[in-house]
Amino acid sequence: MFLGEVIKMDKLNNKVAIIGGGLTGLVAASELQKKGYKNVTIFEKEERLGGKLHTIYYNGRSYELGAIFGLPSQIYLKSLMKELHIKTDGPKLSRINYDSNGHKIMPIPKVALGDFLKELDRLPKVLAHYPSLDDIFIHDIEVSLMLPFSEWCDLHNFNVLKTIYIQYFTIFGLGDINEVPALYVLRILNDKNLMSFMELPEFLTWKDGVSSLIKYLIEEIKDIRFGQKVTNIFLSKNENLWVQTPFETLEFDQIIITAPLEQYDHLSIMGEGMMEHLSVIKYQSFNVYAIIGKNVPRGCGCILENLYNYKNGHMILWDSRWDVSNGEEMIIVYAYSPLNNSKESNFEIIKKDLLKLGVCNPRLYQAKLWHHCPYVDTRELQDGFYNKMAAIQGKNNIFFAGEIMSTLSMNNCICYAKHLIKRYF
């Protein structure tokens, strides 16, 4: 046996811990096992896997409390589906825009349609000047991408597109374009993804919900520790890594953290200054409500006037998902968390919105508060946030693969996980 083969065999015997059982963690574990790694362990603090891939059931039908669908333009998601033999057999979704009283409205005024088409045609040409957007690992960010997205639009005279991005970015709880830097908006919703929305394609949905992806990934992964929150990571005297949970302490050669990084910023192994560095990461507070009622509106609808900060707490999107019209049924409602000075509870605000739309006797069935879509602001980007992350990637054999590294979307998570394993393992 050649020396290179011996080194490879030794490497494949390494024990690898993955902290976080969301899509990124599961794909990373699957990729490691495909490469021949024999000892891969996932630690998941919850009793379920999937993170924001969170499907629930009511009357035998699937409903989504997290991610809703994929886009035809998302090639890594489609490739994973093909690999796992998953078909798009779910409900067809098409969104209609409304005012708060349930009246249909146009997304943009007719007088602005000509300008919009010109801006849409110009968008790919402008994005071609930003090569960093095509890099899987974020680095060498162009200065203007560090600006809030609304300012970036002003820089390029994208006046109508700015409004459209509110409707396709802010609507899914991804944040306020006056605050979130253009880097994140354009990595999540690039020109191809935007066109997928505009062309009203067959969105990728699944009869058994988005959790179908998790179901098939789990079948390939041998060692998953549910309900095991990692409380500490430390080095032994021989410089191997130890992972501690309330139940056990295990030794590993390498660790991949896919869970939110600020959960581990206090650990001494992360190095001096990491607490301060990771504390600058910001999140969106986005609520999803599963509600039972009668006379629920059909299909998927967006209330455009609620897509602004001062309307936080109000319903911005609903999805009744299945065409059911016999008595009570479920509707999924999405809203940012209310402003701190709100005197009403989260659900009371939503209930009033639903009553205005004609829903009878709305009652809460389940709810989920997501702190998601992590980002850092303009100042932190200018201060070299991602250069600092690149400098510590792999230090002490610890690797970072959370959403702050990949940016949010199923496609981006899959892409980042695959390329992390390819580059470092």
From TrEMBL:
Pfam families: Amino_oxidase. It comes from the Bacteria. Residues 23-404 form the Amine oxidase domain. One of its GO terms (molecular function) is oxidoreductase activity. InterPro entries: Amino_oxidase, FAD/NAD-bd_sf, Zeta_carotene_desat/Oxidored. Gene3D superfamilies: 1.10.405.20, 3.30.70.1990, FAD/NAD(P)-binding domain (3.50.50.60). This is FAD-dependent oxidoreductase. It comes from Anaeromonas frigoriresistens.
